């Protein structure tokens, strides 16, 4: 059961979002239980305290339309209201997946070590360290989680981008291309991130 705890100065909004979450299979919104996800509605003055208290819990900050987003981290995400519930749930699942994978520390595959929290990929043969963006880390985590299964572009849209209306399959292709430029030994013949049947697979 994924427990979502909501902090909001708007009782009606808080109650409505809690009820929507409670009606979903596998979710609860119980303030008496430890949170798996925190939602902070607009009042960003509480963010620092929540981050310090729950340093391993993803925090979603809900912003009013027109408010400027701050720099996101693996544990702090920003969402502008109004938003679709299914998009919000996809983003939460993606954040939880990141926490789950990062908790295991370092992941090894294809001659590399990935440290999600440091956003760094190390080439085990050359000891070269490659800095990654948060999006690139999320892409590699999703490919790692899929093991030998093919990750389609639709999978990436759902798990990494949360079905953002601004994202097309071309955007995904561009991000994969840029990631390959960073990590592939031979950029013309990708060996780590392999294209197969219109999707992508990580070479272990």
What would your notes on this structure say?
The protein is of the alpha/beta class and 204 residues long. It is built from six helices and eleven strands. A five-stranded parallel sheet has the order 2-1-3-4-5, sandwiched between helices. Strands 6-7-8-9 form a four-stranded antiparallel sheet, with no helix packed on it. α3 (85-102) crosses α4 (134-146). The longest helix is centred in the middle third of the chain and has 18 residues, at 85-102. The protein is elongated, with a radius of gyration of 18 Å.
Compact summary:
By secondary structure, this protein is α/β, with parallel strands linked by helices. It has helices at residues 11-22, 47-53, 85-102, 134-146, 153-159, 169-183; strands at 2-7, 27-28, 37-41, 59-63, 76-80, 107-109, 112-115, 120-123, 129-131, 193-196, 199-202.
Question: What would you call the structural class?
Answer: alpha/beta
**How many domains in all?**
2
Low-confidence stretches: none
> What is the share of helical residues?
25-40%
Q: Could you give a short account of the major beta sheet?
A: 5 strands, parallel
Tell me the name of the CATH homologous superfamily of the largest domain: Response regulator
Task: Supply the number of helical segments.
Answer: 6
Indicate the mean pLDDT.
85
Number of strands: 11
Under the CATH scheme, which class of the largest domain? Answer: Alpha Beta
Gross CATH architecture of the largest domain: 3-Layer(aba) Sandwich
Strand content: 15-25%
